[in-house]
Amino acid sequence: MMRFLINVYTFSMIIAAAAVSAENPAEPCKLCGHDVPAPVSSQPDTTIHYPQEKHLKNIRQLTNGGDFAEAYFSFDDSMIAFQAKSAKWGTKCDHIYYFPFKDGDMKNHIPGLISEGLGRTTCSFFMPGDTSILYASTRSGGSECPPEPERRADGKYLWPIYPDFDIYVANLKGQLIDTLVKSPGYDAEATVSPKGDLIVFTSDRSGDLELYTCKIDGSDVKQITFDLGYDGGAFFSPDGTKLVFRSSRPKTPEEIKEYKDLLKEGLVAPTNMEIYVCNVDGSDLRQITSLGKANWAPFFHPSGEKILFSSNHAGARGFEFNLYMINLDGSGLERITWDPVFDAFPMFSYDGRKLIFSSNRNNGGTRDTNLFIADWVE
């Protein structure tokens, strides 16, 4: 569920600098959980594009009024599947939608609902042929939204690992076709290889949160990672031979105990993660970043030689996430976006010409997170 999970990035420079006070209290951001100062209503953010964002041009805002995240292209680049929580759409927790670009944008109408409004959902992705979409849902545990974990006294942000999450496939009318991946416990965060032959997902079926692959029909499940810690949010390289993912690796006895204790409660703390790469069979596992804090939401550059990801390593206040790009050998770190609050969930179109991502920019002085699409400039 995490692929998309840490989402709350941008207000404007002025809003991000707003002081926290009794009149302007801090609240945890809806997507990343870190404290975000309340916006200054007299100076709402109206920024779409920052001058430093040289790799992006012709940025367009697709959504307005809610929390929108994890938008991923169809194989033919004509549609996106995404998750959304929006009072305007009558949703109390994340649900899955799809949207054809020929429809213009989603500001004035509700796109097609895929997940039937049942349970809580996450991590949608088009299947080969673009006539169906996979997603994870807690629907087997009930039609209502499951409770979110209470915030602890120490302020630590925690992600729920709902045991009712399984991976389903539905057609574009929202009709359920198949239960693709199901086991006792958490199965979610699935994405599909550009080759159309494999799916990667995260599961706790081994007692730890590890990566698994299966064939496109859900058969031949294979465990890919084995080290203690949360492995998730995996994506395939453009040629389908590699995986990139985020991971926590508790080292000290205290860190290991905390991780295991939280996992027993169905929780994980996503505040210390780095980016890793391996072959699709799990071989040649390598750590790419050593930046500290939370590095996540990675996606391969169209060349297959670089990775885009979201990170708060350069921020002073924890909630300041931006997109960065780095070479596969860990060199050449480059900042891509400059919003002072939140940018995350990047995905390139299959033709490599477009980038879609989630951001808090131009949210009218609210804490809303919206979808943006831009032309990519090398």
TrEMBL record:
Q: Where is the signal peptide?
A: 1-22
Keywords on record: Signal
Q: Write down the InterPro entries for this protein, in alphabetical order.
A: 6-blade_b-propeller_TolB-like, WD40
Family (UniProt):
Belongs to the TolB family.
Record's protein name: Protein containing WD40-like beta propeller repeat
Q: Which organism is it from?
A: Lentimicrobium saccharophilum
The opening ranks of the lineage are: Bacteria, Pseudomonadati, Bacteroidota, Bacteroidia, Bacteroidales
